[in-house]
Each structure stands twice: as C-alpha cells, then as structure tokens.
Design a protein that fits this description.
Oligomer: single chain
Number of helices: 4
Strand order of the largest sheet: 1-2-3-4
Strand content: 15-25%
Helix content: 25-40%
Number of domains: 1
Low-confidence stretches: 1-5, 122-129
CATH class: Alpha Beta
CATH topology: Trna Endonuclease, Chain: A, domain 1
Order of helices and strands: HHEEEHEH
Structural class: alpha+beta
Mean pLDDT: 83
Distance between the termini: 44 Å
Shape: globular
Radius of gyration: 16 Å
Number of strands: 4
CATH architecture: 3-Layer(aba) Sandwich
Length: 129
C-alpha cells in the first residue's frame, strides 16, 4: 500500500478500520488506549458498557496544572470506526457535544474524517458558550 502524500496516515487508518469494522466495542477500547498513550495527563479512563452508556463510549479524567497539585477535569470520548469515505457528521458530533456534562470536554476518535458541520446560528451559540 502506498502512502498518499497529503494523507500519509491513510493506509494505517484503513488497516485499523478493517480490523475493527465489525467490532465497534473493541474499537472503543482501542480509542481509549490511544487516548491514554497519547497523553501522560490522562489519569483515569473507563470504557462504558456497549448499551445504556449515556451516549459516551468512554469517560475519564485529564489532569491539568502542576504535578504537585493537579486538577482532574472529566472528559467524554466518542469512538467512530467509519470507512474513509464516510465522514462523522452533525448527528454524531452533536450527540457528543450535547451529552457533555458541566465542566467536561469531549474527544472524538475516528478512522474517518469530521464532515462539515452545518449548524443553525442558535446551535452555534450553544457550542461557543
């Protein structure tokens, strides 16, 4: 497989997609492991049950501030194992955003891309708040 000069990670993403496409809950665990490995500030990370999870695949704590006195901020992670030609759209993105709790931030992990979001101005104001 030749790497695309504009998207050198595309062959790797395709391999990940092919590996997990029929096992979405396993991809959620993979995304949680990727988050843990990508940042030493991830303190706790738990993959939720595949059903009745409140719309969040994973929840965890991210540590901010000095190592001697860190503050834990909770995050919710949504994992989408989609083919390269199927972008993560408004429905999936808004599901993550609107299920965030007070003082949480969201993380989206995908094998695809984030499609252009077309939101009404009233929805955009909520996102910017």
């Amino acid at each position: 497989m030749r790497a695309c000069p504009r998207h050198p990670d595309k062959p790797l993403l395709n391999l990940v997609y092919e590996h997990f496409k029929d096992r979405p809950h396993d991809f959620e665990q993979f995304a949680a492991d990727l988050m843990r490995l990508s940042s030493p500030n991830v303190d706790r990370i738990d993959v939720t049950r595949p059903w009745r999870d409140g719309g969040r695949d994973t929840v965890g704590d991210y540590l901010l501030g000095p190592a001697s006195d860190p503050v834990a901020v909770e995050f919710a992670l949504e994992a989408k194992c989609y083919a390269a030609n199927h972008g993560v759209g408004v429905r999936e993105t808004s599901r993550l955003i609107f299920r965030l709790r007070h003082r949480q931030f969201g993380v989206l992990v995908t094998t695809s891309y984030l499609a252009r979001l077309r939101l009404r101005p009233s929805r955009l104001a909520v996102l910017q708040a």
